[in-house]
Structure prediction request, 223 residues.
Amino acid sequence: MGTVLITGAARGLGLDLTKQYAAKGWKVHACARNPAGMKDIDGDIHHHRLEVTDYDAVKALANKLSGEAIDVLICNAGVSRTAAATLGSLDAAAWRETFEVNALAPLMMAEAFIDHVARSTERKLIAISSRLGSITHCNSGRYAYRASKTALNMEWKGLSVDTASKGLICVVMHPGWVQTDMGGAQATLTIAQSVPAMVKVIDGLKADDNGRFLNYDGSEIPW
Ligand SMILES: NC(=O)c1ccc[n+]([C@@H]2O[C@H](COP(=O)([O-])OP(=O)(O)OC[C@H]3O[C@@H](n4cnc5c(N)ncnc54)[C@H](OP(=O)(O)O)[C@@H]3O)[C@@H](O)[C@H]2O)c1
Prediction:
């Protein structure tokens, strides 16, 4: 069985990713700012308190797990701030927070954990991005969120080049529009429709998939 590390694991997509991998019999490093509410999930789950923008804490966790092989690292934690969304009411502080959580923190996670992933069997580095980060699909609004996910996509494309010699498979995924706190009740997909499908896609990733931007169902999304 493999080992997965998931950020933002206490609710939404991250919580269900934790449940899905635990149900498969994987060892799960479930990272959350407040892991207290996660204690009743069955399986080989290791809880870690982690604010992803606390880079000393990210390094400390990487050190704590040094020597361990992590087959799949999933950078899932993310924010969407309405204050930074609309032209005419842009908010610099909300922009900075959005970029820090959605774009900078995943790259810092990747840097800290590259060796853990490289020494594993599956060697998969996954970022939960969004179709809203696709320049091809851009229509309007949600400037900070869209731009932060576009930046994340560029980072993962760069990682796919820089880590190819280590055999890593770096993929960004869109979970669909999903009914979570972020997605809202009007979203078209339930968590049960999105997360198991994403896990199936991640399970099936091969070396040729390095550097791709994939939908939750495995279809390609244009950059
Ligand atoms: N739902 C959708 O329709 C949708 C669509 C496209 C992409 N996504 C992406 O999917 C990912 C998960 O979203 P979701 O729908 O599950 O959203 P959610 O229900 O709002 O959950 C967001 C998660 O991110 C965590 N988080 C936020 N800031 C953090 C920080 N600074 N440090 C550590 N954890 C932090 C939250 O932890 P706390 O509980 O501590 O706040 C929470 O676990 C995000 O990257 C999002 O952009 C979602």
About this structure: The chain is about 35% helix and 15% strand. The first strand starts at residue 3 and ends at 6. The two ends are 33 Å apart (CA to CA). The pocket of NAP is lined by residues 7-8, 10-14, 32-34, 51-53, 76-79, 101, 128, 130, 174-175, 177-178, 180-183, 187 (CB under 6 Å).
